[in-house]
Design goal:
single chain, alpha/beta, Four Helix Bundle (Hemerythrin (Met), subunit A), Rossmann fold, 2 domains, globular
Amino acid sequence: MSEAVVDDIVAVLPPLLQSLEALGFVARHLNPPDFDSVMEAAGTPDQALQAIRSRLADWPEEFASVRNSLEAASDAALAAFAGLREVQHGSGDMIAVFRALRYAPRAQEALYPLAAKLPPVSDFFVDPRLREDADLEARLATPAKENTGIIHDHNEPGSRGGFSLYVPEYYRPDRAWPLVMALHGGSGNGRGFLWSWLRDARGRGAILVAPTATGHTWALMGEDTDTPNLGRILDFVRSRWNVDPTKLLLTGMSDGGTFCYVTGLENSSPFTHLA
């Protein structure tokens, strides 16, 4: 890379990663009565990112893939903060907050391809408690194996019934791997919810599956079209990767958490753990 491009990356990455950390903080601690105090605690990393964003504009074309990832991630993070700031300043409600936070996983999805190229990005996508693990660092530094990383199957925004998948880049077929299937909340989608679990899966070595409900939310009432779909998805994953049948975790948030028990407690359920 040219010295100028390296300088721009060094300038942009800290406020971008700090902005993403702050958005994660807001999402984890969000409680409507405490929204203003949560925003104050999150700080203003978006201001630094906004100030430095223009440095990505005039890069040589040979670095377009890196620039495009940084631009898309920065713009999504800034869009999230713009929505949050509007509510903070009295314009909008908690629905607007949830809509703003939907930009956070989009930012992470845009940034993730750079994890293989830029160590600070790779560190961001690891649980902070594992960032000093030398063995993990060595595994992540090896070239990604075939059919690993982020995979989407009929799971574009707005679609229903598909799934997103993460297979650790250091996957080896000679041993069985634990699997986590994580169910999004009502009206959400698996493509976005994948990022809630990616750090843990990447750092601890688990295959992660994030399906999208077949309907507007999970089949908590009426005909259950989701349980057969989850079974289909699980069968697909198990047919292509070596999954440990004794370590199959089904978990979820909100409606997804409720549906974990609806389907996971059935006698025919393949899942060994619920949370």
